[in-house]
Amino acid sequence: MTTEIKLPLEKAAIQAFSSTNNEPVWLSELRAKAIEAYSTLPMPKPDKTNIKNWNFTEFPQHTVDSAPFNSLTELPEEVKTLIDANENHNIYVQRNNTPAYSSLTAELKEQGVIFTDIITAAREHSDLVEKYFMKKGIKIDEHRLTALHAALLNGGVFIYVPKNVEIKEPLQAVFLRDNKEASLFNHVLIVADENSQVTYVENYISIVDGTGLANIATEVIAENGAKVLYGAVDTLSKDVVTYVNRRGVAANDAKIEWALGQMNDGDTISENTTNLIGDGSFSYAKTVVVGRGEQKQNFTTSIIHFGKHSEGLILKHGVMKDSASSIFNGIGKIEHGATKSNAEQESRVLMLSEKARGDANPILLIDEDDVTAGHAASVGRVDPLQLYYLMSRGISKKEAERLIIHGFLAPVVNELPIEGVKKQLVEVIERKVR
């Protein structure tokens, strides 16, 4: 006996959405392929986390049309605090599923930089997007959620940085959810061509409660000698179930660095994988997490070495309170032939209450002899000696715990390149651990 698994949206509705947006043939065909694959693929199986009863398919609407913003002054106050309009002139804002505001300096446009929403990019830069979209990074047939993402894609951004172009100011995207019926199937595709350089920061922010889901994918392609710094702060509300898959591919001497503040209040599955394909490639993945309430989360960070002399570093710090539970998996894998490579990782979890749970699992998979690798992991409560030291100087126990937590998370927080975003992350941490 077989069980029929249906898409949450009819095939005709998906085709109509594609047609309405005048999508190129290749994207319409990719959606159709994903629809066919969906029912035959298994769900992902995150280690030590049972997601059988999690809602990854039911949502009120596929797309929610929202009014755009004519200027940054119209943004909600919660979003204004993330953006420094005097310093950063390269901004994209998506409101629910609508491209709501976009700006890019004339200088970057003249240099050939592209920074626009993913649907527009598929129309106006079709050949370029098709070359990379779910080709080198994430594949549509990895499991049911990647197929679902490809079929229901309804937002996101595309960034292209031409050869030898170094973007000095960060590119910033804000994905605002202010309609309780909005669900997000966003795809971020960043292509940094040879010897280019870009810093990208994104914010997911909910300012309304309401049952929804987010199936988010990112692909970062760093060609030879390119450098990409990717920062993110995710703050979706507790009623939003989130699956996020961020994938990087680094060619010869390319660098991909991640600084991720994963602060969602709902149940979350996060995969962050970087494939070091080229010789001399490098990746440093930093993640900071705070869990509270009864939420369940699973964070898997993987750096896979294929190129010689490649280096992959993983740093994960998490704080759990109330009855929250999280799994932190760190995987450093060195494939056969990746000689002289280095895989290092550190995972630390701090628990603030008796019912909180954190599980740090460092994993090294080494198929080559001439390499270096190492890992460290710890799970525990606030150090009483640190508390004693601070309290002996007249600091209250509550304030002492607060200082210890901020110090514990600082290695990732300090890596975010935009002050407004860094401030937001600090404030979110403060609110969640208070």
Q: What topology does this entry show?
A:
Blueprint: H1 11-20, H2 25-38, H3 77-80, E1 91-95, E2 98-103, H4 106-110, E3 114-117, H5 118-124, H6 126-132, H7 144-152, E4 155-161, E5 171-177, E6 186-192, E7 197-206, E8 212-222, E9 227-235, E10 240-250, E11 255-262, E12 268-276, E13 282-291, E14 296-305, E15 311-320, E16 325-334, E17 342-351, E18 357-366, E19 372-381, H8 384-391, H9 397-413, H10 419-433
Parallel strand pairs: 1-5, 4-6, 5-7, 6-8, 7-9, 8-10, 9-11, 10-12, 11-13, 12-14, 13-15, 14-16, 15-17, 16-18, 17-19
Antiparallel strand pairs: 1-2, 3-4
What does this structure look like?
This protein is of the alpha/beta class and about 425 residues long. Helix content is about 20%, strand content about 40%. The protein is built from ten helices and 19 strands. The protein has helices spanning about 10-20, 25-40, 75-80, 105-110, 120-125, 125-130, 145-150, 385-390, 395-415, 420-434; strands at about 90-95, 100-105, 115, 155-160, 170-175, 185-190, 195-205, 210-220, 225-235, 240-250, 255-260, 270-275, 280-290, 295-305, 310-320, 325-335, 340-350, 355-365, 370-380. The strands form two sheets. It has a ten-stranded mixed beta sheet, covered by helices on one side. A nine-stranded mixed beta sheet has the order 3-4-6-8-10-12-14-16-18. Strand 1 (about 90-95) and strand 2 form a beta hairpin. The protein is globular.
